[in-house]
Predict the 3D structure of the following.
Amino acid sequence: MNEAEFKSLLTNQRDFFNSGVSLDYKFRRNTLLQLRKLILSNESRIFDALYKDLGKPAFESYASEVGVILQELNLILRNLRKWMRPKRVYTPVVHFIASSHYVYKPYGVVLIISPWNYPFQLLFNPLIGALAAGNCVIAKPSQHASHTSELMIDLINNNFKSEYLHLLPVGNVINQILLKEKYDYIFFTGSSETAKQVMKAAADNLTPLSLELGGKCPVIVHEDANLKIAARRIMWGKHLNAGQSCVAPDYILVHARIKKQLVTEMKLCLEKFFGADPSKSADFCRIINLPNLERLNNYLKDSKILSGGQNDPENLYFSPTLIDGISPDHPALKEEIFGPILPIIEYKDLEEAIKFVSSRPSPLAIYIFSDSTETRNKILRKTQSGGVCINETVVHFINPYLPLGGVGLSGMGKYHGCFSFETFGYKRAVMNKSNLIDLPVRYPPYRNKTNILRYFIK
């Protein structure tokens, strides 16, 4: 697709939106039903593409990709009519006689840019929210997850009109022209560096946007935690998708008294999950490409490897790895790891752990393991993050009733479930004033009307 073709696509989508077709409830519902049918009938093809791109086992492909989208679709289909209804609000007596309400209106033409780590879920999740809200959508999948991207392009572009919904081809040509144009809303998921470029382009046109980024999600394991459960849930959350998740545990802060025991339990979990040699496990994903594998290798420098550390570039395998003995300025504690390496840092006092987290950019999530309500509340009160799991990791991102999104450098904007519908629409305020009475108090000349006005307003 060249620049002229892309501009034509944008023009056609804007004309289609202005026709009002996508505003109709039945049209939106039928679109979502068609998407659900497409996903269900092509589930095995989606699984196969995800395996080719990331080595994902079918369980993970369903749990974190296909199943998440089907859950979202079912929730939206059940609630769409209710969400679309006008919401009545109170009208102050000073406006007598009048009624007030607001209604969610779609923005228009939405651009969605999705990443490679959950290539299906992170494109379809915002996409169905944008369509449910009544928008037209242009979406760009990642070129790194080529098999999944090509399949999604095939499914969408062969079943929907391009003036309503279209997936762009992957490649450098489209990347160069993508942000030159004006959209009505932009939804970006990816790295903070690319997000800065997207935000600069959006600023030129004052385009509203959501940025779903990453960040270094810390795990705080206090001395009163259930270590067996903590180890199991941390290891599962960390090694889902081989750690290539924006919500993956990125480092552990563990109380010095229990550090040794926690490490022992985590090693036992790894062997139970993936066997003595995880490279032979059918349940452990692969790294997306060689540059990312080499990047992960660099994080092992100047560290003490407690477990793992092996890799196989030919098969894009990097072993589950626990590291220790790194300084606060080590790259593994400054950059998002996005892989199966987990640094472990000990603390002696809870305030020390809280200070460590609070001194760094706000993460997408914080994971707290403690049986003490006082401890948990103290961490919640003194830290900031997009989300929190208590005695758990990661699973909040597959709960469609919770908003997903960051704060500060971990992003802006929330989505999932009703929050997606709200993100891709704006609240249009409507006041309906009666003509039965037209009080003269507001009209000039004002003379001594101020006290009357005070009475009504208070």
In short: The longest strand covers residues 98-106.
